[in-house]
Design goal:
Layout lengths: L7 E5 L1 H8 L10 E3 L16 H9 L7 H17 L6 H4 L10 H10 L5
Helix pairs in contact: 2-3
């Protein structure tokens, strides 16, 4: 059985970069932008974003959080998911997040290539 893999660009999500530049997001939490037609649209009208930023937008419905706070919560779920080697929990278990990289090592290699990881 084959699983459809969403096509990704090689570029980082501009919303992730903006939150990282505000010192609110660790570089490891920056995600690649899905290819045109597959990328979610940001609720703030800023354009296409990654699946993690779209999940953070969904958390804002709860209220009491800024986007940076919600994005950090989503980033923590992503980091835990990568480190637990496929054990789904949190937003990953709920199906609210799609992984652009299969492993933490693949993600860190992409970050290094983009100059975001040392």
């Amino acid at each position: 059985m084959s699983t459809f893999k969403i096509p990704m660009t090689d570029e980082p999500c501009p919303r992730c970069i903006a939150v990282m530049d505000e010192n609110s997001l660790d570089a490891e939490m920056v995600m690649p932008l899905p290819a045109a037609g597959f990328a979610p649209r940001a609720r703030d009208g800023s354009g296409p974003c990654c699946f993690d930023c779209a999940s953070a937008d969904g958390l804002l419905i709860v209220g009491g959080m800024t986007f940076a706070m919600a994005r950090l919560a989503v980033g923590n779920d992503r980091a835990d998911s990568y480190r637990l080697n496929g054990i789904a929990m949190g937003l990953v278990l709920a199906g609210r997040m799609r992984a652009p990289h299969d492993t933490l090592e693949e993600h860190q290699a992409w970050l290094f290539k983009k100059g975001l990881w040392t």
